[in-house]
Design brief:
269 residues; elongated; 13 helices; alpha/beta
């Protein structure tokens, strides 16, 4: 658990949870039993070492007679699940009507399987403790309800062939990840395209980025770098990246060609 998490929102929530539990004259074991969690998990919540789910918060608030005190912290706790550099983008993700991504290093988080996500976080340096790894895996998977939101967000991905040919986490993890890409790629609101390594033209050699359009019509670009990220809202920069993305999509395999390519890779894996 990072220092920021230990002293921030999770820690404040933990103190509030303990205070309400104490006022209710309830032990950790009883609260755990009434909310469906173990005593040790309740301890982790109270100590700010683990971030609770929205479901737990709602149950605990009701069981302890919190009158909404705990529920008021749901959104801030959800934001705290993510690394600091991604939190602003995570908020925009919830408001997006369009989300377009170019990936050149790993499979995008919205497409990752549980095993692939765990491999990504386990390999992070400096090392993350096990609780933080599991917390971030859970947060990443929870993001994937994005695809079934209403109205359906229009979503596209351009993925480098080298990313798909990688063996991150081993053969079984790779197979599962390729199967997941095939599954998501069949959704009506999703287009997945592969950028082959043998292309002689490439519009985005500067690296990955994401283009976002919100429900209010704002167009934003998100660019991530080591320990930092940046959201661009000025029309000039966003337009440049939109042009790059349009060229990328023209240079890549079509969505149907891309799914056939992924299926071929799956057969070879």
């Amino acid at each position: 658990m990072s220092d920021e998490q230990a002293t921030g929102v999770p820690h404040i929530f933990g103190r509030q949870l303990k205070r309400l539990r104490t006022w209710a004259g309830m032990g950790r074991a009883e609260l755990g039993s009434r909310t469906g969690y173990s005593e040790s998990t309740i301890a982790s919540f109270e100590q700010g070492r683990r971030i609770p789910s929205r479901e737990f918060i709602a149950r605990a608030d009701a069981v302890l007679g919190g009158r909404g005190v705990l529920l008021e912290m749901v959104e801030e706790l959800e934001r705290a699940q993510y690394p600091a550099f991604f939190r602003d983008a995570a908020k925009l993700e919830k408001e997006a009507v369009e989300w377009h991504v170019y990936d050149a290093r790993v499979v995008n988080g919205l497409l990752q399987t549980e095993d692939y996500a765990r491999a990504v976080f386990t390999m992070a340096r400096p090392l993350l403790d096990e609780e933080t790894v599991e917390q971030r895996v859970a947060a990443r998977l929870a993001r994937q309800d994005f695809f079934s939101r209403k109205p359906l967000p229009i979503t596209s991905f351009v993925i480098e062939e080298s990313v798909l040919r990688g063996r991150l986490g081993g053969r079984a993890v790779t197979r599962g990840q390729l199967e997941q890409i095939l599954l998501v790629g069949q959704l009506r609101n999703v287009a997945i395209q592969v950028m082959p390594t043998d292309r002689e033209e490439h519009a985005a050699l500067t690296g990955p980025f994401t283009l976002i359009e919100t429900t209010k019509g704002r167009r934003i670009a998100y660019v991530e770098a080591y320990k930092h990220s940046r959201l661009f809202t000025d029309r000039g920069t966003v337009r440049e990246l939109e042009e790059k993305y349009s060229l990328l999509r023209a240079q890549a395999l079509t969505p149907s060609e891309s799914l056939a390519f992924v299926e071929k890779l799956l057969g070879e894996t």
